[in-house]
Amino acid sequence: MLLRDLLLCFGFRILVRARVRQSCCRQCNSDYTGHTRPAMRLRNVGLPPYICMYSLLAIISAHNVNVTNVRVITREDNFGGSFGYSGALYSSDIGTLDAMISAPNSNSKKRGDEKTGQILKFTNIFSTQSLPEETIFYPSQTGLLNGSNGEGFGTTTLVINSTHRLMCAPRWLNTTKIKEKSPAFLGRCVLVGPGSDSIQEFGPYAQAVGYFHHVPKNMYHKHVYWKGGSLFGFSADSDGSVVAVGTPGLLNAKGGVHVYDIASGNMSDYNLTSYISNLNATSYGYLGYSVKLGTFCNEGYRGVCVAVGGPTMLNFGQVQIIHWNKDDIFNKLIQEINGTQIWSSFGYCLGSVNINNNAYDELLVGAPLYTEWSNPDHVPDQGMVFLYHYDLLTKKYIKRDVTLDGSRQKSARFGSAMADIGDINLDGVSDLAVGAPGETDGAGSIYIYLGSTNGFVNVPSQRIQASQIKVPVLLKGFGFTISSQHAPLSNTYPVFAVSAVLTDTVVIFRCKPVVDVQVNLTASPNPIDLRSACSRDFNLQGKCFKVQFCLIHAIRGSDFQPVNFSIHYFLDTHIQSEELKRVTFPTGQGTTHSTVKTTVLESASPNIPVCSELVVLLKLAQIQLDRFTPIEIKTTFQIQPTHSPDDGPLLDALKANNIVEEVTIKKECRSDVKCEVDLIVSATLQNSPINTQWTDIIVNYTKQVVMKINIRNKNETAYGVKITAEVDSILTFVKSKPDVNCALESIELNTTGIDLADTEKTLVTCISYEALSPKDELEFHIVFDINQTYINNDIINKDLNAKVSTTPYNYEHSPEINVDDNAILLTGHVNIASILEISSISSPKEIAMQRTERKSDGEPVVTGGDQQRTPINVTHKFLVQNKGPSYLPRTEIVVRVPHLLDDRSELVANITVEMLTPSGKVQCTSSDQITSTTPDFPTTYSTTTVDWVIENKRRRRSVQNKCQEKLCFLKCEDGPDLCSVHTCEVKTDLQPNSHMELNVNMDIDLAKLLIEKEFNTLHFISDIEIKEPKHLLLKLWRVTQQKESVTSFHFVQPGDQVNIWIIIGSLMASLIVLAIVCVILWKVGFFKRTQRLELQKDRKEFWQTVQATKAD
């Protein structure tokens, strides 16, 4: 809560009805009331409950405000007197800067303990001596002998001109004239002139009666405040000839304003009978809470125009523009401007600034309780200032698009105060200060907005916080009130004052002078010819150029004085990386290390520039990367601090403190700006490792694909070439040869126009920074690895598609004149090459058996005994080996075994077919069990044949009949309907150098093998056939992949058998011969072991003797 809000609450407490009284006084402890016509929604910035108010007054300036060298005035002996609630700065007759500061809640020494208030005058406030109190004004000293306790003398204090001062007491009560039962705060002001007896008291309601008035019931309550409680002098403003005084309590707090002409003594008035209309809606609108004089009316109105704020008018707040002519009696309403947000206190504070010297002032309206609800991060009571300008077409004030809102802090109450603080930077345009006393937990801040001919922007040039003010007492509510601007006679820069009421402290600020600087930056030579070496004057190797910076300065509003400047050079500022920068400063040893350098210039003479020169070296390797982008040289300048930095001059914050020069590289083109090129690209694909048998990409064999690229140029020199290779993602980028700058990039769209089916793509971008003249060629290779993850995918495209394109690296500065030959399409084929080798073995391989004969009735007669009556078990094994180079896709193997004889009798029983693969055992199924054994392969097949499949080298016999040349054959070719067919499904790919084994096990009934006597051998043959895989990448086999396994049966006649006694006799003779041999060996001592040992010992001794003899 603020003092002026307390005045309203306590001023009406006695006179209003109980319901209104309770609603108003609740505002001292709350920001909201539920009454239909609540009192002003007042601010609470966290003060102790016993005071419910505070304020502060301080000097405000913009970027050149001296916040350290300040003047502080403290009234510790008058704590709680609200010292500094209002005040003004002015120049005395002798040229000193004086201050008039009020303390409206202080005790009057003339009236004992009564808090009538007082005003103190301070002389020569910037003197190095302690500040004397020259005069203390009390009500009795100004002719207000009947002053009342708590009248708030000094609530409003104005310096009208060099001779007159205005002092108001809005809570003054005329106790000698009032006749009603309850007193009313009428308010009055006093105008103090140059002489001691020049004191003029005025107040339209000071002597009048009729504080209460009966109002018709259909218009409002039965009794209302009429003139009583008008609070005349609550706010005031002056232009030097007239004074506008606000009366926010007039007519049941509807409020109003009176304009007083100082020369004539005339004052505007209201026709209260007509003014009472619409009182139901306008009561407690507090019109006159703030007033501001300005050029707000068009040329058709003579006299005075004043803007009057009513912060709770119609609950949304309202500003009225009122015209008054001293020849008239009543005010005339010109325009009403309504707020847009309820309870935002629109009109709480008013300001006016003329920013472009036109005929009309800008009107500024503060709404300190405004909340930006449209912002999801909104905070309550952040506050806002709205800007209005006069529209010549409508002849009304309309709102600008720009609003001011500070830093949008919670309970900041931005817009509680504002003032035209003058031209603080001497640029010819007035500047604005806006207070936010609730910021930072009630510490407060001031925001400075520099004016321009285009108006204000919502970017403050400076934010001054309470914590920046170095005073003994912690300030609170900084920014509640801001004094009007004043420029002392001895200074062209304005001075401002702000006070901290709760701590009874006033702070005075001054501005630092502003320096204007003219600078110039050049580079030579510019452009740079890379064929030229450095000048001999520099004594440097390589390519270089010179940079020169010159400066001249002047101080606004002051005589010339020397200033030292710090100059900072920054090289190639377009490039952030130090390593990639194209230029550098040389060190004393000729090496290049830094791209930043600092020098100092002393500007000691007016109108004479001072300069500095530096040498810059070029880094040719980096220049090749980019010849077209200018090399930007940026130079910044700052004022070096003086021995007293608190008072030293500053650069203009609205002007740039840097200058930029661009250096270009000379190119070998007809136009140095652009080099027109004509690039031609050619390319081929080569597989690695190279194989003369296959030219395609062979799965599992081809490891890499090399893209050979050639770029030629037919026109002007190309400074940098960009090559893009776009391929299917079965290829993975590895490297480039020679070392061209290539990188893998992501790609989302098919930019080639090539149908790459559903596969993903790989995009590789290569850049050559070397200059490519018309007579040169660029050749390099891009190496790709085969991505096996994609290769093993069944949906892979059969063709490998690729596109190679080229463009100039810097197309803007090096355009292509013919794009038709900038791209080429390449196609490669992907194939699976699986070479199979099939072998077989049978067990037993051959069987000898007696011929089976038939009886006269056709039944077989077995003469070989039980052996031919028992079925024999036969096994046929097949080994399938993949010799590569590619894997064998999933397929199936068909096994056929002769099963039935011509008479449909069963020759073979218990047939089992089993397959062993690298992934495990597979049980094959017979034909009567098969439902569907075809794998799920793609439906698109190749019809191309190949010549690299190895044929089965086994030469088949030409068989026209089942038997020929004493040989008979039993196989499925001769009677496929008599065979048992088994299918083995290969569910996984058979990798190179892997194999799988098929075992065919069966029982053959030998008794049923009938054959004519002229034939002596029967070949029992089973076979397998590997079905061709239905894979997109596999070409058709030219030779059927099949193999046979044979078991031979040899038939022997019964008469051909050997007599059993011959066999027995042969065995007996063999035993007799063996016995004779053993006896002979025993006789010769072969079996005597000891004799052999002795013989070996004798031989050893003999040889030892021989060796000894030779030694002698």
Automatic annotation (TrEMBL):
Disordered: region residues: 847-868
Species in which this protein is naturally found: Biomphalaria glabrata (Bloodfluke planorb)
Repeat (FG-GAP) residue spans along the chain: 332-397, 400-458
SMART domains: Int_alpha (SM00191)
Domain Integrin alpha second immunoglobulin-like intervals: 669-803
Stretches assigned to the Integrin alpha third immunoglobulin-like domain: 873-1011
Protein name, entry field: Uncharacterized protein
Subcellular location(s) per record: Membrane
Keywords, in A-Z order: Cell adhesion, Glycoprotein, Integrin, Membrane, Receptor, Repeat, Signal, Transmembrane, Transmembrane helix
Major location (coarse): membrane
Annotated Integrin alpha first immunoglubulin-like domain residues: 512-668
TM annotation in the entry: 1060-1082
Topology of the protein relative to the lipid bilayer: Single-pass type I membrane protein
Gene3D superfamilies documented for this protein: Bicelle-embedded integrin alpha(iib) transmembrane segment, Integrin alpha, N-terminal, Integrin domains. Chain A, domain 2, ntegrin, alpha v. Chain A, domain 3, ntegrin, alpha v. Chain A, domain 4
Cellular component GO terms held in the UniProt record: external side of plasma membrane; integrin complex
Family from the record: Belongs to the integrin alpha chain family.
One of the protein's GO biological processes: cell adhesion mediated by integrin
GO terms for MF: integrin binding
Extent of the signal sequence: 1-18
